[in-house]
Amino acid sequence: MAKQKFDKIQSTCIPIAIDNNNTDNIIPARYLASTTRDPKFYGDAFMHDLRYDAEGRPVADFVMNQPEFSEAPRPGVHEIIVGGKNWGSGSSREHAAWAIAGYGVRVVISSSFADIHRNNLLNCFVLPVIVSEAFQKELFDTIAHDPQAEVLVDVPAQTVTNLSTGNSQHFDINSYKKYCLMNAYDDIDFLLSNRDKIEQFEGK
């Protein structure tokens, strides 16, 4: 998946107000047999069986097909999902994180995540942000009132701000993962960035 440095992300949001949105919703099991790592393949599969009916036609009342939210993510537009609680429950399939990253989303905000899915998101350069249920509801209400409302996620400061109300919350993130996101490092990149130190240690 694309490696982008994380700093401040200011964007409109896609509200997916589904509690316990499991990984089979996020990417149906039939896509797991594919051997491709093409981001578009997985992005097209994101929420597929809720986005499309059995004939492949868009389901008009599903949020991602509504005109306000159907535009594909790009800088400043729909780079953030506000999801229901217990986002990513169910199986541990890494493909679910691949699908979210492949669609172009950089941040998922929820009041809770399944632990394995949360780690998979971080490994795919998608930031999971945990907020209180009250703040989560405020975000849903704000977006319902104004689909063009923007949220600011400040990774260095570890804050998420509803720019419509000015309300902000702090979020936690593992310091190692924060460093990797801010430098666009995966685990191998991190090791290579410390190659000189490793070689010096081995030399001793």
In short:
This protein is α/β, with parallel strands linked by helices and 204 residues long. The chain has 9 helices and 7 strands, in the order E-H-H-H-E-H-E-H-E-H-E-E-E-H-H-H.
Principal-axis shape equals globular
Query: First CA to last CA: what distance?
Result: 37 Å
Largest sheet: 7 strands, mixed
Helix content: 25-40%
Q: What do you see in this structure?
A:
It is a single chain. This protein has 204 residues and is of the alpha/beta class. The protein is 35% helix and 16% strand. It has nine helices and seven strands, in the order βαααβαβαβαβββααα. β3, α5 and β4 form a beta-alpha-beta unit. α2 (39-45) crosses α4 and α4 (95-103) packs across α5. The protein starts with 7 loop residues before the first strand and ends with a helix.
Key structural traits:
204 residues, alpha/beta, 7 strands, 16% strand, seven-stranded mixed sheet
List the helices and strands and how they pair.
Elements: E1 8-16, H1 23-26, H2 39-45, H3 48-51, E2 80-83, H4 95-103, E3 107-110, H5 115-123, E4 127-130, H6 133-145, E5 150-154, E6 159-162, E7 168-170, H7 175-183, H8 187-193, H9 195-203
Helix pairs in contact: 2-4, 4-5
